Amino acid sequence: MKIEITKDQERLARIAKALGHPTRVAILSFLAKQKECFFGEIHEVLNVSKPTVSNHLSELKEAGLIQGTIEPPKVRYCINNENWEKAHSMFNSFFKENPIEKNSSCC
Fold first, then answer.
1. How far is CA 74 from CA 11, 30, 38, in A?
2. Which residues contact 18 (CB under 8 A, 6 or more apart)?
3. Is the CB of residue 12 less than 8 Å from the CB of residue 19?
4. Which of 2, 9, 52, 53 could tie 43 with a disulfide, CB 3.0–4.6 Å?
5. What is the pTM for the complete model shown?
6. What is the DSSP secondary-structure string of 40-76?
7. Which pLDDT score is estimated for 1?
8. Residue 31 and residue 27: Cα distance in Å, rounded?
9. How many helices (H) and strands (E) does the chain have?
10. What 8-state DSSP symbol labels residue 102?
């Protein structure tokens, strides 16, 4: 039997990769708690270097989890609500559709 990788699986893997670093998880947690888009320097809030935060923000934007609007000299960042809900749903579905056997003798 040959397994075909679906578009949803590719999307889920992309999101999982974006969540695969503690700084990115911290950024998402911070932005999710904001009542409105954050307009400031995230590197100051998280005490991480500006270039490091910039790289992590790019990864999160590429995954579609956040969005940003450039308003020189700063950028306004917030959670992309639509994609956040899709990611939530995709992870829930993945775990529901792929339960493990509790009495498995594997390993």
1. 29, 17, 10
2. 24, 59, 60, 62, 63, 65
3. no
4. 53
5. 0.84
6. S-HHHHHT--HHHHHHHHHHHHHTTSEEEEEETTEEE
7. 87
8. 6
9. 5, 3
10. T
Whether 78 and 64 have beta carbons less than 8 Å apart is answered as: no
CB 17 within 8 A of CB 63: yes
pLDDT at 6 over 70: yes
d(CA 107, CA 91) in angstroms, rounded, equals 25
Residue 47: both structure tokens together? 């005490």
pLDDT, tens digit, for every residue of 25-81?
Answer: 999 999 999 988 998 888 888 889 989 999 999 999 999 999 998 888 888 999 999
Q: How far apart are CA 12 and CA 19, in angstroms?
A: 11
φ and ψ at residue 69, rounded to 5 degrees: -125, 125
Q: Is 50 within 8 Å of 41 (Cβ atoms)?
A: yes
**Amino acid symbol at 102:** K
